[in-house]
Amino acid sequence: MKLSRKFVNDYTNLNNVDLKEYANAMLKLGNEYESMGKLVNVEGLIIGEVESCEMHPESDHLHICKVNIGKEVLNIVCGAPNVRKGIKVIVAPDGCVLPGGTIKKTTILNYESNGMICSLEELGIEHKYLKEEDIKGIHELDEFAPVGEDPLKYLELDDEVIDFELTANRADLLSMLGLAYESSVITGEKVELPETKYEEIKDNVKDTLTLKVNTPNVYTFLVKRVNDIKIEEAPVFMKNRLMACGIRSINNVVDISNYVMLETGQPLHFYDADKLGKVIESRNAKNGEKLVTLDNEERILSEEDIIITNGKEPIGLAGVMGGLDTEIDENTKNVVIECAIFNPANIRKTSKKLLRSEASIRYEKGLDVNRCYFAMERAAYLLEKYADGKVLSGMLEYNTQDRNDKTIEITLDKINSVLGYDLSAKEVENVFNKLGFKVETKKNIFKVTVPTRRTDISIVEDLIEEVSRVYGVDNIKSTLPVFESTPSVHNFKDRAIREIMVGLGLNEVITYSLISVDDIFKFTNDEFGLIKVLDPLNEDRVVLRHSIVSSLLDVYKYNKARNIKDLSIFEISKCFSSINGEYIEEKKLAALMTGIYTEGLKKESYDFYAAKGVVEELLDKLGFKGRYEFVVKDMIEEMHPTKSAYINVSGKIVGMFGCVHPNICKDEVYVMEINLDELLGIKTGRLKYRETSKFPGIAYDLAFVLPKNVLNKDVISSIKQGGGKLLSTVEVFDYYEGDKIDENKKSIAYSLYFESNERTLELNDINPLIDKIIENVVKRHNGVLRDK
Amino acid sequence: MKEKLEALKVDALNEIEKCNDEASINNVKSKYLGKKSVFSDVMSNMASLSNEEKKSVGMVSNEVRTSITEALDERLKAIKEEELNRRLQNDKIDITLPSNKRRSGSLHPLTLVREEIEDLFVSMGYDVVDGPEVETDNYCFEMLNLPKSHPARDAQDSFYITDDMLLRTQTSAVQIRAMLANTEKKPFKLICPGKTYRRDDDDATHSHQFSQVEGLVVGENVSLSDLKGTLEVFAKKMFGESREIRFRASYFPFTEPSYEVDVSCFKCDKKGCNICKGTGWIEILGCGMVHPNVLENCGFDHTKYQGFAFGAGIERIASLKYGVTNMRDYFTNDYRFLKNFDRKEI
């Protein structure tokens, strides 16, 4: 919403404030602004009179002019077709800064030029506000323009504009009057309503027109008629104010409807009375009904749209835009004024669907019934004054709204308690007075009468807000809430997992939850329903992901395209699925590991075992040591069939890891994904100290040659079974396959450690155990002991 | 004999001086002090001497033996030291060659900021609460005093899943859940950090996915002063001790009064610069006193309870803290971007 200082100044004195200070005071009151400045941001322009004008001898369009600017006569070379002796013009002298650049003394084809004669366009006024002649040539001032004076002042273009970004609740501020009331809170100046007194002729509108309201979505509908109007150009002040507020001038009559809307915030619609007929009706549209609006577009309507009809066909889209058929044109003689209030919810829906207009923006937020009546009077007055109209007596009136001001009672205690202020009754009264609210005070109870213009105020808290808005927060003390102290409830398990992953050298990433439909079933064997957004931004962001892995692969591709091939990343995120119509959200941890994971001269690259190490370290550190195994069966299609596995913790599959299938990614990329809700649902024991044996134990190494298909984990089970209680650890310390042994054999060397908590072990204690172990491995796995 | 012994000592000491390794020391030792040494030759003649002479020669011979032994020991020690030193010198390496280490991991900047905020509020006794990202229209809007036709909904263009379900546009929905779950309707302090979604095209300042942290405090005497004090603590923690905050009146349907809060620009300290767009202040969050309708919707008697709420965008805070200028950087996850955050801020 653009505020024109001149416009608001008509209703309250704004002459004595500095624009920037004023804008910042408005900001603190809750009215943010996007920009502020002069309507025409040019300084130093002078009115000049062209004293002589001759064609330039070396050009077919340049003129050599002598221009009197009061204190001197300037030589100016001017290319405009309409420059001629005797006209008064806008001169930008040497040094004047125009939007297109700074004016400098120069020589054009041997003739001195000491300034520029300007068009309005050159002053920075947008095309849409200009007349044809102002686009083609320099602006001609009228004969009364005082030479040597400021042309902007003369043209009443010396206005200042603040572009406010208003909050959704302050519909009242979408008007100069509303802004005037708000300004008076800052300035303390009075607000005066503009003139509305006009003469009425004998003819009564009721004899010419019938109003029918056939929908509960009309709250107020007022109709008056003005006859014998003269369509002409609007007065300068009106055109300029419309321009300052961003609306183009059409003619005096159309401009009046816009002017009153800007002034009061109440949109009006003018119909050509002779095109309209005898009936004006408002009802909901029928599905599929059609209307051509003022902008010459055919609109297809639906039931929720409120329309205006002539009793038969639609003639206007209520609250949004009028129809083309009843438009005011240069031949219009008689005008029907509609001034109405509709259900904001309907207008919002219609305008969202069809188009937003200056009217709909205001209607959507709700309007003041009394302002509606006032706007009607004001429009009639202006049509009489600026279009020579004859106002018919009487008004067609339909109103369902209460026109009385609201009264709200509030106590000083309540105000101070919510705000933590220590205000006196006097101070509070003062705030209400500034806002223009009547207040009666009895024993610290305020009876506040809120004018209907403040549609946003209806409850006690609204008044408290007004007090805090006006009084400000800078002046109140800072405290912290006083509470019974209880330990805070929080679950930082994710955080522990993040710390572990970071410790393992992985970088955390955050990627989008919405992915493409193509990716949704990748890296999972789960069956589930999709959660799709109804109106996606693009096809990459359509469905909520069930697995994070695809997103991590995208991160890998992004980095690889930038020559970063070594990457180890992880993410913790919610993952989604719809199962039997229920929306399931599960937290998952995913990681992607590829390339070198060390720094320095010893280069180590991720392979299956390094990736497995990450998975194991994570599980071990979370307390699942010894309670998980990796299972290979029915692997996910996107995973390498033999170099990947499911992660089984305490008998439950909680995730998978391994190499990505070469069909999906040519590079050797390892990924892992774990359902954290499932993993963390498995109980881990509390952290406990296990006493270290005081007695020395015995280390013993054994190496076996085994058939290749025997799994290490099975051999370890056999060793443990053979070793019994005294065998405290078994570790693989060497692995070999190659020339020195059979082609289909492998050799694994184990380092065993025996110890007892009761005594020092002797070889005699363990020899029978070693024998048992060897027997187990030989018998169960067809192993052969190597160099005992 | 005495002269012989003295001469022998001089010869021995000279030879010891010339020894350069353990072997030559041993040679000298056996040559002068061994069984078949010059010394034992001389000493074998001792028997022929008088008692008087035996005594004096004995003294000399002892002195010579001791001197030679000491000289041998000393020289041997020196040789060993030299040898060790030589060996150590040979060990010399270029300590400026790179170290061997695992590449360092890092937390995402949005996590760093989130955890910092969580820790601050946990230290003040706030609960940290989580909720679903697919939310009902009822919890995300209606219960928060935002009926379907409300114009304030325009500011939050949403990803709807069905007519009634959407990706939450604000973490406020978690507040509603927490208040409804609070069956005894006891006073509470909580924050809810999490992901949120709005139907905005991604660019340098917008992202269809972002994250928020909201705070909510409800009690019998919770006031705007408490909100002010709390947010001052928050701003100083996140942006530095010397920061000031300013409240600007604003409007949110779920709070009344409502404010937007600016922090004094940490680059120019209120003078005006490119970071604060010349205003000296940077907007960091929205807040206000909980609207009575919201309290009532969640079963809290608004005549008895008051509360405050605030909500801040984590990306915005991270951007201000770390100087990230493009919102997209948080989600493209360029390794070079991530690496900036691989250290602790202590």
Q: What would you note in describing this structure?
A:
The complex is a heterodimer of chains A (788) and B (346). Chain A has 788 residues and is an alpha+beta fold. The longest helix of chain A has 19 residues, at 369-387. The N and C termini of chain A lie far apart (92 Å). Chain A is elongated. Helix content of chain A is 26%, strand content 30%. Chain B is built from twelve helices and ten strands. Chain B has helices at residues 2-18, 22-33, 38-44, 51-90, 109-123, 137-140, 172-181, 224-239, 292-297, 314-322, 329-332, 335-338; strands at residues 101-102, 127-128, 134-136, 165-167, 188-197, 209-219, 245-252, 255-264, 281-290, 306-313. In chain B, helix 1 runs antiparallel to helix 2 and helix 5 packs across helix 10. The longest helix of chain B has 40 residues, at 51-90. The two termini of chain B are 82 Å apart. The mean pLDDT of chain B is 89. Chains A and B meet through helix 9, helix 12, helix 14, helix 15 and strand 30 of A and strand 1, helix 5, strand 2, strand 5 and strand 6 of B. Strand 35 (598-599) of chain A pairs antiparallel with strand 1 of chain B, so a sheet runs across the interface.
Contiguous helical run count of chain A? 20
Unreliable spans of chain A are none
Q: Tell me which CATH architecture of the largest domain in chain A applies here.
A: 3-Layer(bba) Sandwich
Q: Estimate percent helicity of chain A.
A: 25-40%
In the CATH hierarchy, the third-tier topology of the largest domain in chain B is known as BirA Bifunctional Protein, domain 2
Structural class of chain B: alpha+beta
Oligomer: heterodimer
C-alpha-based Rg of chain A, rounded: 42 Å
Average pLDDT for all residues of chain A: 93
